């Protein structure tokens, strides 16, 4: 009897620990396979992921029947009850609507986009695959309220809600939680050194102030790029694109773009992935020859011509001043010098095409190791990103970034309730150089400025005496002064060019040296699993240390790196009431930089879901934000020729010392304590500038929004109003080389006289804050729908600023945003079997562009992009053919940038259907 019982117990034990193998396939409503779907035994950690064909195999240690939970981004989570192992399962998932998709960034926790307490835009896998843009990053421009300023083929700058620049320090971009900003040059790297489109899981964008959760500089908005997990998305995928860029200035040029992604889960504990992509092509050539100050001026009709994309002609003097110098040197008599007019004459510059190779390249590599020590949600991640690029960026000058290198290393520990991460971002300017200084110093290499102007003045007097015509005298004088000019393309020019671009001394060269970096750590804990009966509560914080190391070529760090740090802490409480229809969110953050007093950034929002079907949502929010002055606002010390750029950190003012053309010594402190406003000097009434050193800028943002879904029609709109305080701005001031602006009457008179003479003064572009009342406001609305399987979307954006220029005539707001913009998309995934298409168009009103580089109107433009695609399921391949700006009507988005032509491409995407 004992033996029988023992055998029976063994038999039961075997049955109870039986391993059941379930095979199946996951498809969508069109019977197309869905890769990367999580198939898990409900209530356990046992699970697997479907492959590229949607197939899966799962072994479970549980007797029948049991329930499988099936989930994937963009689809409704499904459950399947398995009663036996006979036959393969076919599981169909239903695609969710856009508003039902989950987002994280708005509240730092998963929530339906429909219930987000603030405006949010999402660009998912479907949108990435369907975009007509040649790269997914360009496709972001079709989102509501989003502007993209195109710096070059490989470098695009995203902005929302006005005050755009190419550096765009008001907007933050995070790639898997890593800030993608260049530490020294201050521009967001965009996708020059970012994420491969094969690895993008989703992109989320929060327009407007986000400082309450994300700290300083999340001021105009923040972009989140999230990558695919190697646990969930395994295998090898690749793409290959090639085509032409067509531009009137640069002609037709080939480009190619290749990428590969490899990911594998070696077990339920360890997975890894690598990504590699490379793009090469010819950039949009900047060839605008309009004069920066007078659009009607040319080299032929204006001796003082200073072209937009002509470099070297910023070096200029008035002929009467040249005559005075020649009299002092004994080369002219006073009588001869009196014949020289008060006419500004500039040296002959070189076109950008002569000084910039105009090639564009982006090489990106990243690798990640993911470890789940307990095979559950606790995960340890190492991610390393490396990028090298060649492109052009623009701020006060245009800079040719050649072999620019950036690396980022992140270590993160996280689970469903917390994360702790630390990372370092380091950059190396490589062989980069300033294009304007290249033109200036190539000129000086073959003939110094003093000699050139002396020859010009002498030849002018000779020709004037012979012809009596000032116009002919200027022509003859330039011909004489240009004797010996280096001709682009000759060995002599190339030798001088190489010498200049390899020399970081801006009096002789133009090389940009930089090995700056910053270290960052942040953490967040979500107590919702503990406090959910009361409210969802989160706490977190961050710390960052900057290390600026430009070797004195950008910052005042010639004697060693400059370090400073900042930190912040925050908390958020979120509560649902009234049958979960009312959602109240409150958060506050405190940030402190070692250079400034601390700042509190509170946010309060309320959302209410209406309708029996809960298909309408109203939201309102008030939030404050701030941004610290950038590294350049604080520590730049750079003479760019026409003026000097100066940061106003207290220790920067005495460290920066330069001379005016006559050799008088001037310090950075003089720009703040001994200067006239530039406008007052030009108007002939010198007035003390009295500007303050820069401090953090603040914003108070109000927003009301509405989302609704009526059948297949989705509506989303918002109205916002922003009030700015201590708006960070650059102000042009003139420091006299002699005298004191606030000194004795005699010193004041000497200072006024010196400020009026370009030989005894220095113009500074100094970082400060404006006292004027500045506000901006706007309206954004969009509608998307599906009509007989066709996807249609239209959105409109209105943006405007409000301030009185008369309150501060020297203040330049740099709103740089069109008042009206309209965008539309139209397409269908399955026009017929395996064939789809997408067309997108956007129209922009004209707008004023203001920057240190140049100011002018940007004409209205219309751009149409289109693509067709054909899927080959058996080969797991999609063929995509497209064109950007198919009308060929060239346009530009900023003064000084290249005109954007058309781009045509053919691409193959493998295993990323």
Report on this model:
With 913 residues, the protein is mainly beta. It is 15% helix and 45% strand. It has 17 helices and 52 strands. The strands form eleven sheets. It has a 22-stranded antiparallel β-barrel. Strand 17 and strand 18 form a beta hairpin. Mean pLDDT is 90; it is low at 3-17.
Brief write-up:
By secondary structure, the chain is mainly β. The chain is 15% helix and 45% strand.
For the secondary structure, the number of strands is 52
* Helix percent band: 10-25%
What class do helices, strands and sheet pairing give? mainly beta
Question: How does the major sheet shape up?
Answer: 22 strands, antiparallel, barrel
Distance between the termini: 63 Å
The whole-number mean of residue pLDDT values reads: 90
Q: What would you report as the Rg, rounded to the nearest angstrom?
A: 31 Å
* Beta-strand percentage range: 35-45%
Shape: elongated
Low-confidence regions: 3-17
Features of the shown structure:
22-stranded antiparallel barrel; 45% strand; disordered N terminus
Write the layout of secondary structure elements.
Blueprint: H1 2-16, E1 20-27, E2 38-41, E3 47-49, E4 55-60, E5 66-71, E6 78-82, E7 89-92, E8 102-103, E9 111-112, E10 121-124, H2 125-130, H3 136-139, E11 146-150, E12 156-160, E13 171-175, E14 178-179, E15 200-207, H4 211-214, E16 221-227, E17 235-247, E18 251-265, E19 270-282, E20 310-311, E21 316-318, H5 319-328, H6 334-337, E22 344-346, E23 350-351, H7 352-355, E24 359-371, E25 379-394, E26 398-414, E27 418-428, E28 433-434, H8 435-446, H9 449-467, H10 470-481, H11 491-501, E29 517-526, H12 528-531, E30 536-548, E31 562-577, E32 582-593, E33 599-610, E34 616-627, H13 631-635, E35 637-639, E36 644-646, H14 650-653, E37 657-659, E38 665-667, H15 668-673, E39 676-677, H16 678-682, E40 697-710, E41 713-725, E42 727-736, H17 745-755, E43 761-770, E44 774-787, E45 790-802, E46 820-832, E47 835-844, E48 847-849, E49 856-858, E50 861-872, E51 877-884, E52 902-910
Parallel strand pairs: 1-7, 13-16, 36-43
Antiparallel strand pairs: 1-4, 2-3, 2-5, 5-6, 8-9, 10-15, 11-12, 13-14, 15-16, 17-18, 17-52, 18-19, 19-24, 20-23, 21-22, 24-25, 25-26, 26-27, 26-28, 27-29, 29-30, 30-31, 31-32, 32-33, 33-34, 34-40, 35-36, 37-38, 39-42, 40-41, 41-44, 42-43, 44-45, 45-46, 46-47, 47-50, 48-49, 50-51, 51-52
Helix pairs in contact: 8-11, 9-10
